[in-house]
Amino acid sequence: MRTNGILLVSNFLSRWGSRAVCEELALRLSAEGMKVITTSSKRARLPRLVDMMRTTWTRRADYDFAHVAVFSGAAFLWAESTCGLLRRLGKPYALTLHGGNLPNFARANPFRVRRLLKSAQCVLAPSAYLRETMSVYRDDVRLMENAVDIGRYEFRLRKKVQPSLVWLRSFHEIYNPTLAPKVLELIGREFPEARLTMIGPDKDGSLEKTKQTARALRVDDRIVFAGGIEKSAVPEYLHCGDIFLNTSNIDNAPVSVIEAMACGLCVVSTDVGGIPFLLKNRHNALLVPPNDLNAMAGAVRNILIDHDLAKRLSENARTKAEDYDWAVVLPKWKSILGQRAGEISPAVCGA
C-alpha cells in the first residue's frame, strides 16, 4: 500500500545559521499537503551520515519516493550510502547535483559518479553549468533552479551608489573571503568612506584568516563581521549595502547572489564555474577573473563613478532574480515529485 510520503535527504542546518534551498522546499511541499520526511540536521559529518541512514531505514514505511542531494568530496559518500539503502528497500529516488566543484570530483571519480547518476529515476541540476558539465555521466540531467521568495526581498534601485559593500557566504577557502578586505583597502584609497559588511558562518577557519587580513591592511575598523544570520534577516542586511561582492574561486549558482540581485544590489563577481551561466557581464553584473584584486576593485570603482551603469545593473539584476521565484520554480518540483509521491514516473522526470 502506498503511503505517498516523500523523503528528502540533504543538509538541514538552519539551526546552525545555514539554510539550504532543500529546507525551503520541504516547507513548501508540506504546505501543498504532501507528507515530507527530512534528514539530516546533524552538524558533524559522521553523525549526519548515520542519521541519514537511520531515517531512511526506520521511516521506510512512511515514504515511497526519495530525493537525495549530491555533493562532492567526502559528502559524496552520503548520497552513495543512502541511495544504496534505498535500492535495497526498493524505493525510487531523484538526485539533485550541488556545488561548483562537483565536475572536478566527477573527473577524478568517473565510475562512482556515473554509477550513482545512472541508478536514479531522474537527475536534477540547479544550473545550466552543472547540467552541461555532468551530462557526460548521464545525458538527461534536467534543470531545476535554486529558488528564492522574491516577495521577501524589497527592491531598491541603485542609481548613485555609495561605497557600501556586502559579502554573503560561508567563510570557506573556496569562496576566497580574504579578497573582500583587500578590495575594501584598495577602494578606500579613493573612497575613504567605503565600508564592508561580511555575513556568514565560519566553515574552515577562513573567518579568522579574513580578520587577520583586515587587521594587517588596517581596514578592520571599517568591516562588520555579522556572523551567521537567520534567513529572514538576509534582506535587511543586504539593504545596508549598494554593491555585492562574490569572490569565489569555485562556484555554481549561489543563492546569495540571487538574493542580492533580488534586492537590486550591483553585483561584482568572479566568472568561475556556473557564474557566467547565471550572470551576464555589464548587463546584470560585472564579472572579473578569480582572485584578481585589481580587476574586482576596478569593477567596484566603475559602478561608483558610472551612475548609468549602476542603474542598468540594478534593474536587470532584479529582472533576472524574478526567474528564480518560488512561484516559478515550485511547479517544476511538483511536476517531478507529483501531487502525490505515488504519481511519480520516469516519464515525468525525463520531461
What is the element layout, followed by pairings?
Layout: E1 5-9, H1 21-31, E2 35-39, H2 45-58, E3 65-70, H3 76-89, E4 93-97, H4 102-108, H5 110-119, E5 122-125, H6 128-133, E6 142-143, E7 164-168, H7 179-188, E8 195-199, H8 206-217, E9 223-227, H9 234-238, E10 243-246, H10 255-263, E11 266-270, H11 275-278, E12 286-288, H12 293-305, H13 307-321, H14 326-337, H15 346-349
Parallel strand pairs: 1-2, 1-3, 3-4, 4-5, 5-6, 7-8, 7-10, 8-9, 10-11, 11-12
What does this structure look like?
There is one protein chain. The chain contains 15 helices and twelve strands. The protein has helices at about 20-30, 45-60, 75-90, 100-110, 110-120, 130-135, 180-190, 205-215, 235-240, 255-265, 275-280, 295-305, 305-320, 325-335, 345-350, and strands at about 5-10, 35-40, 65-70, 95, 120-125, 140-145, 165-170, 195-200, 225, 245, 265-270, 285-290. The two termini are about 25 Å apart. The strands form two sheets. A six-stranded parallel β-sheet has the order 2-1-3-4-5-6, with helices on both faces. A six-stranded parallel β-sheet has the order 9-8-7-10-11-12, sandwiched between helices. It folds into two domains: about 5-145 and about 325-350, Glycogen Phosphorylase B (Rossmann fold, 3-Layer(aba) Sandwich), CATH 3.40.50; about 150-325, Glycogen Phosphorylase B (Rossmann fold, 3-Layer(aba) Sandwich), CATH 3.40.50.2000. Helices cover about 40% and strands about 15% of the residues. Helix 2 runs parallel beside helix 3 (about 75-90) and helix 7 (about 180-190) packs across helix 12. The chain is an alpha/beta fold and about 350 residues long.
